[in-house]
């Protein structure tokens, strides 16, 4: 398919010679809709008149871009680490200074301390279940850890090529990384009619189907869910672990929203904790990598690219290979590592920053909970829109139309249905902006139904 | 080769099932010698007696870890960006505050401004040759940009598999990334007898040889050189560009040491500048990606993982794919982007921080120049050690023994020759420490020669 005779054929790197896996990568988060939104925003700033006055971005989980305030204590420690002369400044609280001193000292020794702090955080979170700092790998956000684990898992050709199970709807990192690595994506569908819960029978169906054309090796879970906002029950997690053990699948648990749980009766259970509570039959056998990040929860610090993964039951030789692989890319960004350290080691009750810290954290999570319930309530008031409760994370995944009638309407309108049938939306915009967004959706939907009915 | 019956065979992810490319990755920078050094250091700290009292790490180009002071202005701006309350603090100079305000404003708009600032920096550096901000991709250090470009270039199977030319001695990122991507490494040897210069005839030899078993697509150059410290002449760069044009190779220019030039008569010429000065026959045809970073030069800010690449003559469709690919990994760390912006946009003569900034930059580079010449001088005083001038970068690559006599000596001693024959060493330790390192090498070498002669 070379375009002979045209200037492009002179190039070394063309669509014909390029790595074919790259072409298969799809990634909507920064795709054409976002680019168009940025363009419209620019036009509005230039004074061009439109039937609206602002662009409210409800597409991505970047909390601070949506107006959420960073946690003061974290930023104080980071400023102190960036410019240690500030350690002499009386305006900074003592606990922030002592954290900064500790981090600066640790950095000069190579950041073992941060992995130890992460391990202690996990132990506290999981009610005392042991965490070995040697199982902690710091990463450039959670994405980096996820891609690294997937890379280790991919091998084989043809029907023995590695297959990886991912949920649909999914966070597009997974499909993009699998395409990039040339692995086989095995899609399992979450149950929209049951609050986007995970159904073990559906896992079974997807796996059996996949075994015909690839070698399934891993199962990826996002809990709390992105983009669907569900929180898995303890029972469900146990079932998933039993399934992984029986089917010999490597478990990958994306738990970056572990503090974002809003719905009454919902609670975050880490895969690690449930695994160990199920006893040695599982805890000594099932291979698990779990991922966390400084980008979500009440922190929302996307820009620092801080994160970690914990690996359980990893083959020691493979672990050596993993260490080598992450070394090639040098270290994750140090400001992100410093931030991670304060996240896992926040102000304690006897420290001067404690009250402010707790207030900021509580307020941030309370506001998210308020927006979660408001979003679901307003959307469900619109006839024809169905929206599951936002139990956790930062997203809702509502759908327009519960019957094929809407499909016909969309076809009649000439609009592309996939843009409107179901869609992901963050609950992150400030309450006032979120109300505008929801009102606009309501208005658009009602107008659309009236016009084409 | 599955280990049946042993506990490992129960695992999903073993050395047998793991991605085979990962096994092929080699990376010495964080390998066994470094791990042993860290262990020895720990033992010394614990009070264990050794025939020495400290570990001086001369293995990696991490300036600050070696005691080099960060540039004040950069760290002030970063502290202000981390904790904007400091914008009210009268202790910070106005120019640092205005940079921070500008960056905070830009971040909220999505960092187009930083790419524009990089483009203007490149234009100033290259004597006015135009730079389009759309050709600038911000990256997580230079490594990230290099791996991304290599990924785009890799395709084909068997004899049509992509081959990439890299210099030997090399920076191990290149061999590691090629192994990881399953590409073919084409080694060309730098000429030790001519100050580690690049010889076009050697490029030709390596290319002809490689064509028998792969499809050579790209040529990687590191200038100033890592680990060999040479600086390429303008003539050499022209020759390389002509070679790339004639042989249809994509050029990758790793120019992260562009401010680190010490030797009299040596000067940094960017590939971009030389390419454009050679006229449209080359400048409109040769595809070039060049890489820069905040980690080296006088900045030495490894930990922030800031960097950029500029792409020239990239196929527009491939460029779209590149943009998509970098989007999947979200953004490079924002503190690194902020740092990059101050690096390309430093204090100007009419600004309050100018004098301090210039003094720190000049002192840092002058100290490096002093250490470069001291290293070469002391090593060349040792009979049997030969050390090329350190024209640039931060390394020397001396060798023990100019004749086969030394090979025989090593064999007689039972030592592994590859640990001692030639080795890379940074010039980064503080002058006093560097003197100790050089004296120890001298002493060891003389003792060794006496003992086994």
Automatic annotation (TrEMBL), chains A, B:
<keyword id="KW-0808">Transferase</keyword>
<dbReference type="InterPro" id="IPR015421">
    <property type="entry name" value="PyrdxlP-dep_Trfase_major"/>
</dbReference>
<dbReference type="InterPro" id="IPR045088">
    <property type="entry name" value="ALAT1/2-like"/>
</dbReference>
<dbReference type="Pfam" id="PF00155">
    <property type="entry name" value="Aminotran_1_2"/>
</dbReference>
<comment type="similarity">
    <text>Belongs to the class-I pyridoxal-phosphate-dependent aminotransferase family. Alanine aminotransferase subfamily.</text>
</comment>
<keyword id="KW-0663">Pyridoxal phosphate</keyword>
<dbReference type="InterPro" id="IPR004839">
    <property type="entry name" value="Aminotransferase_I/II_large"/>
</dbReference>
<dbReference type="InterPro" id="IPR015424">
    <property type="entry name" value="PyrdxlP-dep_Trfase"/>
</dbReference>
<feature type="domain" description="Aminotransferase class I/classII large">
    <location>
        <begin position="109"/>
        <end position="399"/>
    </location>
</feature>
<comment type="pathway">
    <text>Amino-acid degradation; L-alanine degradation via transaminase pathway; pyruvate from L-alanine: step 1/1.</text>
</comment>
<comment type="subunit">
    <text>Homodimer.</text>
</comment>
<protein>
    <recommendedName>
        <fullName>alanine transaminase</fullName>
        <ecNumber>2.6.1.2</ecNumber>
    </recommendedName>
</protein>
<keyword id="KW-0032">Aminotransferase</keyword>
<dbReference type="InterPro" id="IPR015422">
    <property type="entry name" value="PyrdxlP-dep_Trfase_small"/>
</dbReference>
